[in-house]
Recover the amino acids of this structure.
């Protein structure tokens, strides 16, 4: 349950459209629901502004489906990250309303429309096409979190003119999520061009000495551009969460 759902429920009780008993029945799973193997946090949307997100990677299929079912039963939107195609197909069959995005490995159940909020658009920028899985994880997650999201892809520093041609779009963004592998230089370049906050996402794209994204991570952490913050390797969802909070605070 998120703030909008709770406000609607309280308004229904106030108007007499919903009885106190009915409201209590809907609230009985707050703040969490104990499934034995998991404690589903139904209160997170009220605390953090976005419901609990399910990490699909590493979960037993029956656990994944059960958690998704309980979250879906609240009537809100549900996001499952890091989900391989095979368990995704089972989830889509088991829980109505889920849609699978193969490239970013996201399963999304859109039960409620999401109106964009915040000061302005969140622009997701990727260095190369190989970075798109992480970039799309960030973009779709940010959309579900209530942001107007724009995309600017394949503008890495190997062809810097591609980025500079889009500088008006960079300047218009309220928050930028910049995704890059290899040496991770793109967030530093973007950070030197804009006044808005930049959330940098290193990816595990690159040859041997990229060390699975460690080189990009260290490069971003050592940026000389002011206003650049860094999340973990391949963490598009974490970047979306950070950008959403920044965007809401600015509104």
């Amino acid at each position: 349950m998120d703030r909008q759902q709770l406000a609607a429920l309280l308004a229904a009780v106030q108007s007499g459209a919903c009885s106190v008993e009915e409201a209590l029945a809907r609230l009985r799973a707050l703040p969490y629901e104990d499934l034995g193997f998991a404690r589903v946090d139904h209160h997170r949307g009220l605390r953090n502004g976005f419901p609990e997100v399910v990490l699909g990677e590493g979960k037993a299929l029956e656990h994944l489906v059960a958690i998704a079912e309980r979250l879906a039963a609240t009537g809100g939107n549900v996001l499952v990250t890091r989900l391989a195609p095979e368990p995704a197909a089972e989830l889509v069959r088991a829980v109505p309303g889920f849609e699978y995005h193969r490239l970013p490995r996201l399963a999304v159940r859109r039960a409620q429309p999401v109106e964009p909020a915040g000061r302005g658009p969140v622009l997701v920028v990727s260095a190369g096409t190989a970075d798109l899985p992480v970039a799309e994880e960030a973009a779709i997650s940010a959309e579900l979190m209530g942001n107007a999201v724009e995309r600017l892809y394949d503008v890495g520093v190997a062809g810097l003119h591609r980025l500079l041609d889009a500088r008006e779009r960079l300047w218009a963004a309220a928050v930028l999520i910049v995704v890059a592998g290899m040496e991770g230089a793109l967030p530093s370049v973007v950070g030197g061009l804009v006044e808005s906050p930049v959330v940098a996402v290193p990816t595990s794209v690159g040859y041997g000495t990229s060390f699975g994204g460690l080189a990009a991570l260290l490069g971003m952490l050592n940026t000389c551009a002011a206003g650049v913050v860094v999340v973990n390797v391949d963490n598009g969802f974490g970047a979306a969460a950070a950008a959403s909070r920044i965007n809401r605070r600015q509104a």
